[in-house]
Design a protein that fits this description.
By secondary structure, the protein is α+β, with helices and mostly antiparallel strands. Helices cover 19% and strands 26% of the residues. The protein has 1 helix and 7 strands; from the N terminus they run H-E-E-E-E-E-E-E. The protein starts with 12 loop residues before the first helix and ends in an 8-residue tail after the last strand.
């Protein structure tokens, strides 16, 4: 079977700098709106699948890859802020927030 070669997409220095600045701005905006200890709903997949109601335990910062992240209680490692919704911003139709509550398949969410 013949392998298909896909072109490697490389960012220009300008594009990389723009992405880094956008990530830094997102982290600064998160920190301005949300203090350490903010209660959040965490989705392991981007706004899909099982959730965990938890709280932040750090300010947001940017990883070298350009992803703005925070640390969470009951979760190992840094988590992208794009996978979080603060409890205060959950829609009215969402299940009620309960700290430490798993929703969905528990085996998929780190405890």
């Amino acid at each position: 079977m013949q392998r298909i070669k896909r072109p490697v997409t490389r960012l220009t220095k300008r594009q990389a700098k723009e992405q880094q600045l956008a990530a830094e701005n997102a982290a600064r905006a998160w920190n301005a709106r949300h203090a350490i200890g903010t209660r959040v709903r965490y989705w392991r997949k981007l706004r899909y699948g099982p959730t965990l109601d938890t709280a932040t335990r750090s300010e947001a910062w940017v990883l070298p890859c350009g992803e703005p992240v925070v640390l969470l209680d009951r979760v190992s490692g840094a988590v992208s802020i794009h996978h979080l919704t603060p409890a205060s911003e959950l829609p009215a139709a969402a299940p009620p927030f309960k700290l430490g509550q798993f929703r969905g398949e528990e085996s998929e969410v780190a405890s």
